[in-house]
Amino acid sequence: MNARRLAALLPVPATFALGGALARWWFDRAPERYANDLAQPLVVVTAWGAYGGGAFAILAATVLCAAIALAVAALRSARGAGRGDLAAVELCAALAIAFAIGWPFVFSSDCYAYAAYGAMMLGGLDPYTPLPAHVHGAFLDAARWQWSGAYPVCVYGPLFVALATATVGCIGSHGVGVTLFAFRVLAALAFLGSIALLDRALADAPAPRRYLALCAYGLNPVCLWAVAEGHNDAFLLLAIMAAAAFARERAPLAAFALGLSPLLKAPGAAFAFAAVLDAWSRRSRDRVRVTLAAAGGLVLAACLVLPPLRPALASLGAHGRYAPEVSLQGLIGPEAAFAIAILAGAYGLWCLRLQNRAGYAWIGIGLLSATPNGYPWYALWLVPWSLAAGTGWASRALWGATIASVARYLPDAAGTLGPEAARLAAAAVTFPLAFALADAFPTAFVRKKAPVQP
Known about the structure:
- The chain is mainly alpha-helical.
- The protein contains 23 helices and no strands.
- It has helices spanning 3-9, 11-27, 35-38, 49-77, 85-101, 110-122, 138-146, 158-171, 176-201, 207-218, 221-228, 233-245, 251-260, 268-281, 287-319, 328-332, 334-353, 358-369, 379-388, 393-404, 409-414, 419-430, 437-440.
């Protein structure tokens, strides 16, 4: 391990440690009216008014300071990057996640739902259908409490449901709190494994580029926090990075595996599409085989995912509502945002046709623009699109948007925001995307030199 590289990156986990100390101080001063929330096995900041806004401010400040520390450290030390840098990134990521897990509260209840789905499967119930009101249990009631009576039906693939079932089956006897902690540790291990796989995928890249990619991915503060909350996107990332690591030797097999990734979570399908785009943009000799393999994986995944998911989709169609909030759609409206998403995606495809890797970032921007609520854990599957694009402005803009996505926690933490505050938060989330225009219209951002007088 390179000691100098480690010392340069240590400010990132140190920021999470300092934020955790401040969060603990804030937690100890919680108003008495939130006593029921504070008594839960995993405390989730939900509709806590000004006090919740203060908790959010601590997280937002931590993320911002960690992002600045990361940018300074990575750029200053990239020139001397070497083979031993993976260990430094892994250690700093592990420390940051450990410090984040040590915070006294989180901002998402998703781990409760994961445990409830596993408990339902063990009890012979279908997690893809609403839980009957008369059915009770420790995990089911804990999840019910988080969603004020009825937690959402499962929308994940059967492979993740099997993982949740195994986790609850192995650890559930130790209680809800220990089981939720286990989900968070498993997500952390999956994420740390994906960093090592990314390093293998970039084995042929220049050392500075590989180092910057490892930092941008493995030490992205929002990704670290989302992993510490236990989000299952970390398992999807492990599968994606495993496919990327072996794509050079076995491209069709990697594409087939990516096609199967919706067995974990639906966004995996986009990466199967990315594998096909990559093969055709590089004019690979295997491009037809890669296309057929990705299509075969997607078809097989659809056959395995859609039948059990059909009741959940029907329930969402009957009871769900489309409510864009802190996102580009919330700022300018769904129609305009979808138009921008289509333009960004089309421009990305055109760039890839010209073998300009910035197209990957533009496709990622299109995916983000089409998202009604850009929750912070979506950063876990948006960062790979940024990495694939290289180091241009579009890539930086998408990476910056993942950092800004932390603002999405604010309305849930504080409760209902006023319309002006909601628009301000949406503007903060989407503002970084504007910098992508420096790639599309470079002459507008570069000052022309005055002609030399003879």
